Each structure stands twice: as C-alpha cells, then as structure tokens.
Amino acid sequence: MYRFFPVVVALAGALALAGCDDVAPEAPPTNPQARPNAMVRAPQPSGPSEASRDLARYYTRLENDLVAQGLMRRDGGGVDTPFTDNDLLRNFVQIGFFEEYQRDKGLLPSQSGPVAIKKWTGPVRIGVEFGRNVPDEIRSAERARVAAYANRLARVTGHPISLSDASPNFVVLFMSNDDGAQSRARALEVIPAIAKSNLAIITNLPRSTQCFVISAGTRSENELGVALAYIRTELTDLQRLACIHEEIAQGLGLTNDSPRARPSIFNDDEEFALLTTHDEMLLEALYNPALNPGMGLEEARPILRRLFEKGES
Predict the structure, then answer these.
(1) HEC string of the chain?
(2) Model pLDDT for residues 145-176, shown as the tens digit of each residue
(3) Does residue 162 contact residue 150 with C-beta atoms inside 8 Å?
(4) Is-contact 129 173, C-beta < 8 A?
(5) Half-sphere exposure of 168 (CA within 13 A, CB side)
(6) How far apart are CA 54 and CA 246, in angstroms?
(7) Closest C-alpha to 35, from 194, 255, 186
(8) Residues of the chain with confidence (pLDDT) below 70
(9) How far apart are CA 71 and CA 63, in angstroms?
C-alpha cells in the first residue's frame, strides 16, 4: 500500500500546456491494475457520435494547417537546429525545475521558483488500454507504437521501462470523445486521490487539449510511482504518435515546456512532433544516477554542467 503525493499534470493540444495540482494524500490508495476485459474486449457501439466525428474533422484540419507551415516535424532536428551544451543546461533547468501553472489553480500561470527534481526510481510498467468506442485497427497499431517507444526510452535513460499488462503503474488510455464516463472511472481507479480539478480535465476536455498525463509520487513527493496518460482517438495518426512521445516523456519527470528549447517536443510551438536528439539528452541526464529525486536546482546545476560538457548525460 502507498499514499499519493502531489500530482503533476501536463497537457498537449494545438499549443501544449503543462500544469500541476495537489491531491489529498490521505485518500485510500490502490495499485493500478490493467483491465483488458472492460477496456479492450467490451462490445463496440455501431459508430462514433456526431461530436466525435466533428472532432476528427477538426484535428485533420489542424494537422494540415500545421504541416503546411512547416510544423509537426518528424526529423528530430538537423543543421538548421543546432544546440550547445549551454542550451542543454538552460533547457533542462526550465523544463525539469519549473512549473508552468499554479498547483490546484487550474491554468493560472505559476509564479513560483524552481522545484525539486522528480523522477521514477522503480521500474516503469506501461499498460495500454482502450475505450469501448475505439476501433480495432487503432488498438493494435497504438499498442505496438507504445511498445516500441518504451524500448527506446529504456535505451535512452538506462531505466527499466517496458510495456506490461502485469500491474502497470503508467497507464496509457486511448479514448474517444464518447468514452467520457469510462475515462473518468478509470482515472479514479489508477489515482484514487486525484484532485477534482484534475478529474475535471477528463470530464470536460476542451478540444484544444489533445492529450495529457498525470503523474504522482508514491514513496515521496519527488519519487514518481504512478502515472495516467490520456490520448484522444479522434486525433490523426501523426497526432496520436506525437501524444505518445510527449506525454510518456513528460510523465517520466520533464513536465514543463520552454519556448527556447529547440529542437524539442518540450515547446509549445508544435515545430517538432516526435522526440528529438536534444530531448533524448535531457532524459538521459534526468536518469543519470548522479541526479536524485528531491535534488534542488543549485545542487544539481554543477552536475548537469559536467554531464552536458562531457557528453555523459
């Protein structure tokens, strides 16, 4: 049994958002369990609602507009996006040590200073689940893409990260707009102490939010031990893949965005859709054994400088 500590929320949409809320640690905890029967094998309705079809049309138009502007890149950066050791250090500080929104205050901008490092100390077991209204072709494709990405993140971080149906502690929900009640119920099972403000995101999700992740400490506030990612299935194929990349990476501990981070998915400008080499170096540094959860910025800064200068991140 464990208790939940403050929850970190990160959202992504036409412009990515990130935020934080508190949960009540005294709420009775449960270990999140996979529910393949309820989430995967339940009979599917005859077809999506008109609201769901409208969302699908909207996201298709949105992707077309972004791609026409040269955004949603999948190349990971190149000669047009150089970055230095100092850039990496600056971006890690902004993305790993600062919060974009006030805790338990919705989307009010944060005025606080740097916070402590948050990261997973135990294995990350990613469970993939689907709403009753999600077509079979999406289910098989997205499970395979999450598995491949988990393997990539394990190589990058050196941390045990894998797809697992056995007691997953990082649950990724692929849900349609018609699966609202199911999404809310599952969120309460994964994180029973979820704050009302966080649960409201699931209950009344604006179309500007394509996906989000909620992560929480279990053994301590800064030792992440449970996470829930939500990805809309009305999104295009590329948008869903972008959500997989961003939300799982943010759920590992890099929860903020920075307008100066480039090439990076940790940026609201939508230039890059998929994890870049720059982002891999940030994650590699976060999971370097020299950085411990709870470590403050001033203690971590010289360690980060050494890691980036020597390429040891």
Answers:
(1) CCCCCCEEEEEEECCCEEEEECCCCCCCCCCCCCCHHHHCCCCCCCCCCHHHHHHHHHHHHHHHHHHHCCCCECCCCCCCCCCCHHHHHHHHHHHHHCCCECCCCCCCECCCCCCCCCEECCCEEEEEEECCCCCHHHHHHHHHHHHHHHHHHHHHHCCCEEECCCCCCEEEEEECHHHHHHHHHHHHHHCCCCCHHHHHHHHCCCCCEEEEEEEEEEEECCEEEEEEEEEECCCCHHHHHHHHHHHHHHHCCCCCCCCCCCCCCCCCCCCECCCCHHHHHHHHHHCCCCCCCCCCHHHHHHHHHHHHHHCCC
(2) 999 999 999 999 999 999 999 999 999 999 99
(3) yes
(4) yes
(5) 22
(6) 24
(7) 186
(8) 1-46, 99-112, 311-313
(9) 9
Our CA angle for 221, 226, 231, nearest 5°, is 125
| Euclidean distance between CA atoms 310 and 313, whole angstroms | 8
Find how far residue 245's CA is from the centre of its chain: 8
Kindly give the pairing relationship between strand 124-130 and strand 161-163.
parallel
Nearest to 306 by CA among 283, 279, 288: 288
CA 189 to chain centre: 18
pLDDT, tens only, 79-105: 999 999 999 999 999 999 986 655 554
Phi and psi for 120 in degrees, rounded to 5?
Answer: -85, 140
The C-alpha atoms of residue 94 and residue 266 are separated, in whole angstroms, by 10
Instruction: Kindly report the backbone phi and psi dihedral angles of residue 62, in degrees, each rounded to the nearest multiple of 5, phi listed first.
Output: -60, -45
Name the nearest CA neighbour of 127 among 46, 229, 221, 26: 229
Dihedral angle over CA of 155, 18, 214, 261, nearest 10 = 0
Q: For residue 38, what pLDDT is reported?
A: 43
Give the distance from CA 15 to its chain's centroid.
Answer: 14
Which token pair is 254? 């890099």
Which residues contact residue 131 at a Cβ distance below 8 angstroms, ignoring those fewer than 6 apart? 39, 173, 174, 175, 176, 178, 179, 182, 183, 233
